Each structure stands twice: as structure tokens, then as C-alpha cells.
# Entry
Amino acid sequence: MPSILFTLDDLRRILLEAAGAEESVDLEGDILNTTFAVLGYESLALLETGGRIEREYGIVLDDDDLSDEITPGDLIDAVNTQLSATEAQAA
Amino acid sequence: MNERRVVITGMEVIAPGGVGKERFWDLLSEGRTATRGISFFDPTPFRSRVAAEVDFCPTGHGLTPQEERRMDRAAQFAVVAARTAVADSGIDLGSDDPHRIGVTVGTAVGATMGLDEEYRVVSDGGRLDLVDHRYAPPHLYNYLVPSSFAAEVAWAVGAEGPSTVVSTGCTSGIDAVGYAVELVREGSVDVMIAGASDAPISPITMACFDAIKATTPRHDEPERASRPFDGTRNGFVLGEGSAFFVLEELESARKRGAHIYAEIAGYATRSNAYHMTGLRPDGAEMAEAIGLALDEARINGDQIDYVNAHGSGTKQNDRHETAAFKKSLGTHAYRTPVSSIKSMVGHSLGAIGSIEIAASVLAMEYDVVPPTANLHTTDPECDLDYVPIVARDQLVDTVLTVGSGFGGFQSAMVLASPDRSFV
Amino acid sequence: MTAPVVVTGMGVAAPNGLGTADYWAATRGGKSGIGRITRFDPTGYPARLAGEIPGFDAQEHLPSRLLPQTDRVTRLALVAADWALADAGVDPSQGDPLDMGVVTASAAGGFEFGEGELRRLWSKGSQFVSAYQSFAWFYAVNTGQISIRNGMKGPSGVVVSDQAGGLDALAQARRQIRKGTSLVVSGAVDASICSWGWVAQLAGDRLSSSDEPTRAYLPFDREATGQVPGEGGAILILESAEGARARGAEVYGEIAGYGATIDPAPGSGRPPGLAKAVATALGDAGVDAADIDVVFADGAGIPELDRVEAEAITELFGPRGVPVTVPKSMTGRLYSGAAPLDVACALLAMRDGVIPPTVHTDPCPDYDLDLVLHQARPTQARTALVLARGYGGFNSAVVLRAA
# Structure
């Protein structure tokens, strides 16, 4: 596990900055396993979100990590995997 | 129907691979590519490091040093291309009422290259939040508002009629010509100098397309980087350039014995009202625009000899467009050749629509269909005849050319020989 | 091809009034919206006044999904479009998408958004540039976003001809309606009051250096010394007169005539083209100069340009032959947004029988104009002429007929 953990709250904050939220969607609710498409985020919103995560955490995400078919849970896992890899590299 | 018919009587192209329509056609008909590693700035920090650049010497093409200084590169292209197109048409604009001559210039991103360079200076490399006006050049206003392009072209050719820039993203080059056609048809003008120009190869443009992964990262083989309709395509290659046309009413062009390249027989634009950058896979709105352009031309889909595709080489575009051709042309979509010259000259945003009109006109002129270069691998979603690698000799009397742009714009134009038998 | 096209709705965002009612009350009352710039610190620049729109909170009007991807100019345009559609009594979700289009003008796109991304590019690096930069700053952004928000798939377009573009957009919208589209959202909104936009506007060498809001922008004044830029504009709903009548819509008036020219190259010795643009618009409307009841002038506020416009007006209408006004003396010059706002203003003026004034100007006696000064003047006007001139020599004219 990386020493800095990317959490659902981190993702919520960055999503709101990057792309706002659909009025019909409660981001504070249980969204971990709902696809981004259902939450109202398309690939452009996810590219902006991904770009912000990459810059803030100093990682690089794969193109596949930012599809609207994945869920917040998937993205959080992908970010933490990259964080671990980046730390391992630095160590 | 005695509506005024509009024809192209002069043209010029400035495209990667060479200035001038002859060199442009040589490149296309030989299936060569003009994409290369970016030389304008150090592309190392960028995801995509390949572009289709034009080797262009402003003063070598007749611009004065002051014209060179006050114009952004895209305006320089426009003025040179417009002047040469007028010369090519043999028209004596001085003998016409200048108020009956108008100008349209398509551009997607205007003077973006100049704006990027000047921002770097007035912000002192990004150090100043409040930028320093004392370092701004006097012509910076002309970069702020790109209608300066239309003014420069009008001044260069002596036009004093309705003049404007048409800026509808990546369909600007079709829409600027379509707008001009409407002005000639309705009788507001006798002659239009119409075309498009963009010179977007600058750090800000590369960065914004990097951010949405729209441009290809295939920089290890830049000459093979633009791969429309290929199964391995992964983004477009940014280009630059310009094409201009002289448009006249058919009868007056005939009367003065002009060489008539083609009639602009039909044009339509529609919007997908869906997304600023995304496309629905069904291509419905592009199909709608194609259908309307064919109706206006009174040409059936199965009479189209060649389809000049938008073919940008992104995953979503080529699939969207293929669907639109099937929807609008039916089974004829499988029988008619479809090709993308962006495989050779890249995607010059707003300019490419006019450059593709020029390619379509030259295909009619030489009865040759330009190929889609770099097309080696099939994609089950792109299953039309894309004329891979090698140009094809074939009679070309009617061409459909299309474009698709950020903002949701979908445009289609039908070009035809004015002497076609089925008018 | 010449079926009448009418305005059935308007949405206004102006420095002296947000929303049509506020704008019109301020304008007929002679209330100016020009003041010292607040959106950035203008102290170090040679011009420090602008017409800023106060109190616009985009979050009150637009979904949060749209905010990160839009410049201020697009937010204003989207809200003005919402207001215009509501004013016209049109619910776009009930219309045929392919039968509704959007044609706007732009001068500088989303320039402030672009400034932010250029700053990130040059101060931090290319990977800091937003995904939205690919469209949020470009000239087509307002048309695209209005089309998406309202589900409009019909013919759309964007023209850029500096300050004249606002009228060119209305003419292009009218053309599309005459070709068969029922409704087109048109007009323009511009806004580039940001440090980078300001420096680019300063380069045009036309801005007034005065710090007095009542002395800075004085169209047709003997002491005219320059312009004050502003932000905002108007979005208008255009429909075929027949269609508007069929659905029982209230009509403000008709876009009856249009003409456009561009001045010859500097130094050519040929005359400027404004009078020709007006003559073309009159001919297109089928009216004579004598039929024009009021002129909404461009009012450059620069002596050489004021002279050309005054001469064109007196050439066509005779000395003091028609009331002339410049309500933009209260807003500053809104680039492509200015002329659609003047069109809205002229339609309201004819509806309410009152010509709004040109404020702060002490007219130069060399210009033989009947300027409506200081306070509104009652009128029976039924036909109005709106003029717009853009940097680079663009001249456009529109003739409006009251409903």
C-alpha cells in the first residue's frame, strides 16, 4: 500500500472541481460501484479529472483508467496502484 | 429553376509538403505523407510530438516585411493563397464594382500561434499574472480578433463587399465556402474570395490536444503517424495550411471564358447538439447534412463518384463517419471510394475543410482518387473502400466532402462538374 | 427567398443591466454602467475603465457540470439564450431539433479561459493545460454550447467580424430561416475584461485613458478621445413571421434589411464603405432613407471614425435629417455583443415610443447630426437603422421594422 492513499473523498473533491456534478446525482452517496457514465461523467470530464489527479499526485494513469465504463472504485484502485509503483520507483 | 449556380474558377493550396496546388496534388496522387517530428519548438515535454508543418517563407511568397510582421502565420497563408487563387482565375477584379466582391475566411483557432508567442513575452514566460502591455506588439489586436484575416484578404485582393471570418471549429473550411456560396446565390455579390486558414502548431494547441488524448503519440515513426480508418489508429496529427477559391456565378464565368473547376452544387451544415468534443457512433446528424447537401445538388447518393472523408484518425471519428456514409448513401457507400487526405497532410483544424475541397476539385480535374496513406490494418467498424496506399485512376465528376468539428458541427458539400449529364 | 423574419425573444446581459427589464430601465433613464475595472487591478495600464456586468453569478443559473468547462462569455451567452427562449415562449425540448439552429458572432472567444491556460502552460508546463482548453476559448464555443444545452441540431454558424459581426450573425440567421429553418437563436455576447485581453485591446490603440466614467467614451463629442470596452450583449430569437404568427408569438419587430461592406485598404484613396452598407440595407428592406425614423449609430468615440459615420448619415439622411443615438455610451463597446444589444434596444424603443439617449456627449458642431442627448426623447418610430463598425474596416447595417 502506498503511504499516501487516494480516497473516495479525494476523488469527490477533484471530480467537483474538474467537472461539477449532475443535479440528479448525490456524489456524497454510495457511488463506489456505479459507473461514471451512470453518474453523468463522460470521457472528457474524466480526462480533466484524470489530468488533475496526475498533476496533484505526480503519477501517470493509463488511457484505460479513464473510461466512462469504470467506477469510482476502479479509478481509486488504479490511482493507488500507480502511487505504489511511483513510490517503489523512488525508493 | 433559375437559381444562380456557383462555380469555382480559381484556387490555391498551401499545405504541408509544399506550397502550391501542383505540389499539393503531387503529394496526394503519389500517396506521400508530410507528417514529421515537430520542428517549430521543442516537443519533448508533449505526449504527441508529430505534426504536418508547412515550409513557408513569407517574403518568398510576395509578402512585404511589414505584412509579415503584422500578420499571424495563418493570416500570411490566407493572403498568399487568396492572391494566388485570384491570379489563377484570370479574373480582373479591378473592373468589377468592389462592393460586389466579398470575402470569407474560415479559421478554427485564428491567430493562436501569435497569441501563444506574445503571451509568453508579455507574461515574461508565465511569471506575471498581470501581463505587461509595454511588451505587446502593435498588431496584437489583430491576433485577439481574427476578423483581421478577412480584412487582410479583402485588402490584398481589393474586395469591399461583405467580408467576414467564419469560425465553426473544424468545419470552418467547408462552412466559410458554404457561406460564400449562399451570398453569390442570393445575389448579394458577384464574386467571393473564400477559403480557410489555420496555423495551430504551437505549444498551447499541442498541450490542449494532449490533455484530451486526441492527437497521436506515435512519434517514433512520424511519417506513418496519421492512420485514418486503420485498425491501429490512435489519434490525429495536427497540421496547418490554407486553401482559397474564387467563386462566381456560372453564366458570368462562362461569359468571360473562365476555366471552371467545379460547381458547388450542394452544401448543408447541421449540429449534433450532443457534446463539445464527443460524437455519437451512429453519425445521424452528419448523415442528415449529407442528405440535405445531395438534395440541394439534386444528385442521388449513388451518383457520387468519390467521398472525401473527414477521416481524422481518431477512434471515434472514423467509426462515426463510416456510419454516416452508410446511413446517407446506403449500399452505394460500399461501392464508392472513400479516402482521407489527412493521412498525408494532417488535420489543420479549420483550414482542412477548404484544403479537402481543393483535393476534391483536383480529383475531378485529374480523374484520380487520392489514397488513404498508412492504411494497412482493417477495423471491422470501418469496412468501406478507403483506397489504401495507392491513388486510383477513375472518372470523377461528383464528389462529396464532409467535416466534423468540436462544438458538434457536421457539414457536407457536394461538388460536381457543371456539365454533368444528370442536372 | 424574402419571407419576413422577426424577433420574438431577447435575452440581455449588459453593464448597465442584467436582464432585459433592468437594461431597458437603465438605458431609457440614461444610467451608465461604465466604471473602474474590478475584475483585475488596472492600475498599471494606460486605460482603466470598462463596462463590467455586476452581480452575475453563473451558479444561480447554470448546472455545475457546465461551469468548469466554460468561460464567463459562454456562461453569459447560455443564460441570455435561456432568457431569450423564455421570453419568446419557446420550450426547445418541444421543438423538432433539426428545425432549430444557432448562429452567433464572436470577437475574442473565451479569452479569459485561454489566459488561464496560457498561464499554466508557461508557468507550470504543458501537462497543466485543461482538457477544456480544446474548445472553451475558441470562437465557436457559444454557438456549440447553446446548441447542446437546448438540443438544437439545425443549421448553425459563427461569424467573426469584430464589432460588425453581431449584425452579420443576425443576417446569417435570417438567411437560414428563409431557407426553411423555423427558429434560430442568434446575436452575440463578448467578454474579455482580463489582463491578457486588456493588453490585446490596448494594442488596438483606441482605448480612452480617462479615469472619469463620464468623460472617457464620448461618441460624436468635440473632445472624443477614445473608447471604453465593455462585456455582454444580447441573444435574440429569430423566426419566420409566418411561423411566429401561427404559434401566436408576440413579435418585437422584423429584421427587414441588411447590408455589409469592408473599407478599402488603408492608403488606397478610395472612400469608406459605410454609406454603401446602409444603402444596401435600405434597398434590401425596400425602404427609402426618408422612411428611417431613428438611427442607432456605431459611435466610435474617435474623431476620425466619428467623422466618417457622421458624414455617411448626413449624406443619406440630410443634415439633422433623422434622430441619432448611441446607447452604448452607457455600456461601453461590447465588441460583437454591441450590435445585437442595439437591435434589442431599438426594438424596445419602438415598442415603448421612446428613444434612449446618448449620455455625456457634448456634440461636435462639425457633425450635422440630430443627436438624442442626455435624456430619452418620445418617438413614433416604426423603422430603425442599426449601424455597427469593426476594427479593420467592417461596416454592417440592419433595418428594423416595428411589429
